[in-house]
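Before a colleague's protein record goes any further, I have to sign it off. I want your independent view on whether this chain really folds as the tokens say. The record follows directly below this note.
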Amino acid sequence: MQIKALISDGKAQIEAAGYSSVDAEILFAHLLGLTRMELHNPIALERALAEVSDESAIVESYSELIKRRCNHEPVQYLTGTAGFRNLNLVVGPGVLVPRPETEGLVEEVLKHIANLPGPVSVIDLGAGSGAMAISIATEAPNTHVIAVEKSADAIEWLKQNVAFYDESIRIVQGDVSDVLDGVKCDVVVANPPYVPDSQPLPKDVANFEPAIALFGGSDGLELPKRFIDAAARLLKAGGLLAIEHTETQGEAIAKLLSNDFVQIALHQDLTGRPRWTSSIRSNS
């Protein structure tokens, strides 16, 4: 099997489709049961190749994966996994692929939790794959985490990830507007659908990832407002809300928060863009 030639050809095809050539390495490593870094480790690669009983099947499978990636299918759907902080989550059709931009939000929430007397109650609204809920539960062991998700498709992925990483997380299926009646918590994290309905998206997002997790109404703020109202209902006085949004929505989000929240602060993501806002539930 001419591995270098195979991967080189895969890279060329993927680059021609407008995506990173790194995807070609990720997909080949996936077929061998390796990480991309292990693919460049001669010992790990040799061991993996020794387990291959049918080289032609590997070549055929790789060709099919390259074709699907060139047809804009997300690489995370093709491998069935997505990395997020310390996690390797299972993902697929019906659930949003977790983004590295959200990792900064989790980092700051963890710092906030570290300064609270435990146990700390946390609710993740629109949990999707469970990236935020599971990160918080596993990195801050003094927490009780509830993951709320409306989509029946997404919740199946959420259940798998929670079962693998932290079965103590409580999963609740329902709309944020009326779930958990009477429950109060210390922290709410939210990554609501916030893309304006008419905004064009990259093909690998628009054609494959669930619209229910992406679009937030004509201006993109209809769903964030619903999530903010839910957080105001669920949070104790003095509780923290951290909510993600587009880089242009900071001012509008702050206005939506102003009725029930104080200490409203806009934060930048890993690329320096203003992508999430924190606020404290007021006493009124």
Notes: The longest strand covers residues 235-244. Residues 81 and 90 are 4 Å apart (CA to CA).
